[in-house]
Amino acid sequence: AQQKKTIVTLQAPSNTTINKHIYGHFAEHLGRCVYGGFYVGEDNERIPNTAGVRNDVVAALKELQIPNLRWPGGCFADTYHWKDGIGPKPGRPTIVNSWWGGVTEDNSFGTHDFLNMCELLETEPYLAGNVGSGEVQELADWVQYVNHAGESPMADLRRTNGREEPWKVKFWGVGNEAWGCGGNMTASYYSDVYRKYATFMSDWTNTGGLFRIASGANVDDYEWTETLMKNIKHNLVEGLALHHYANVEWNSKGPATGYSDTQYFKTMQSAWKMDELVRKHSAIMDKYDPKKRIALVVDEWGGWYEVEEGTNPGFLYQQNTMRDAMIAGLTLNVFNNHAERVRMANLAQTINVLQAVILTKDEQMILTPTYHVMEMYKVHQDAQLIPLSVESALYTFEGETLPAVHTSASVGKDGKTHISIVNIDAKQTHQVDLNLGKSYKNLSGRILKSASLNDHNTFEKPDAIKPESFKGFKQNANQLAVELPPFSVVVLTLD
Ligand code: AHR
């Protein structure tokens, strides 16, 4: 018989910190993410900006406390030559974006623009190096250019271009999707290539050690993880990537809005696969790295659907509904619960591309349901993980089932406990009984919900979906009963 209630038991806080870098974002030169999204040009008089970067975007992302931002790709990274994006803008060569829409870019948003923007956002940059079509020297030079404090060819060039102090960039991707757009390499060939590139990436002693991330597996390619963990010397790597996108089917992704119940259920199945992927890739990593020194970095995740009608298919512009809020809530709970190994992740992508947190149209900007989930969950950043045991009720659809309720919990530095709960069931309210282990004096909650699953914010109604105060819970001694409406995300604060 189907269990009616979900039972969640909180254990004592663990020694594991939920690394804030799990809440990272991604900005590729793709469609209107960088150009038109982040960057509108220094001369733009219509859209308020700081050195060409939209002020409204900066304010919204600061509110999210985004911990890191990955750039310039994605597939674009393995075509990008950073030296073309420095120096006086009028003299810069162009680049054709061969992966995304075939558009010609003027390289006006380059290394200085990105790294200065990260300072504005108070976020850490994560630079993705070109391994596919670049050279070892080129990547070594980039590290020297942005990180070397003394006198050196690249640091001197940086100064000539107006920046005295190094930016001290810690996070570096050594290629992207090396199994595909990054060069169609085999795992064993890439692991040798990786070793060579990583060897010449000097730390220049000012970042506390570079954090080098190897291009990881495509979804469930466990052989890839196995080979890299075996072949790459562990003193050369700090993180191993993993990419997984949620959709109905890779070859028939379905629309971003107006999807059917079947398409919704299939997307939830695909999103929930992240749990299995993280477990299985981690188990392989555990064999070679039992002390968990190397992080699993899920540097691309999110929902990927068909583009909005009338938009460039290469620009990957899609709307963002309550389905995306479910993906975000569920996936972030998975990452939190595996925080020992998953120590960094990047939602794809920040603005106007795939599962964006922000959409822009000329001067207008809207925040998506995904933005609101990220904002509600920021309480977990750098908090201590509270392990849970969960017996979830089921979400049943046409004879198939998924756990309906997905939860994670943590205790922050201020001593407050936060519990994030998602009910992905499209139709049923679910009751969750939480065994707290003690009773709390002050309890409050926030909820993200809407009347219809397909609901989303639009430029006409930008605040149709936003978090509200939540009172659907009752404490009885050490127990808390919570009622979660269908397709809703709740974050509780207990003190
Ligand atoms: O995020 C869009 C694309 O998805 C990235 O460029 C690539 O790495 C992945 O295939």
What hetero molecules are in the model?
Answer: alpha-L-arabinofuranose
Described by the principal axes of the CA atoms, the overall outline is: globular
- According to CATH, the fold-level topology of the largest domain is TIM Barrel
Strand order of the largest sheet: 2-5-8-9-10-11-12-13
CATH class of the largest domain: Alpha Beta
GO molecular function, one term: alpha-L-arabinofuranosidase activity
Organism: Sphingobacterium corticibacter
Subunit structure: Homohexamer; trimer of dimers.
Family: Belongs to the glycosyl hydrolase 51 family.
Fold and architecture overview:
Homohexamer; trimer of dimers. Belongs to the glycosyl hydrolase 51 family. This protein has 495 residues and is an alpha/beta fold. It folds into two domains: 363 residues, Glycosidases (TIM Barrel), CATH 3.20.20.80; 108 residues, Immunoglobulin-like (Sandwich), CATH 2.60.40.1180. Helices cover 24% and strands 26% of the residues. The strands form seven sheets. Strands 2-5-8-9-10-11-12-13 form an eight-stranded parallel barrel, surrounded by five helices. Strands 16-20-21-27-23-24 form a six-stranded antiparallel beta sheet, with helices on one face. Strands 17-1-22-26-25 form a five-stranded mixed beta sheet, with no helix packed on it. Strand 25 and strand 26 form a beta hairpin. Helix 5 crosses helix 6. The chain is globular and about 65 Å long. The two termini are 36 Å apart. The chain binds alpha-L-arabinofuranose (AHR). The site of alpha-L-arabinofuranose has 10 residues, from loops.
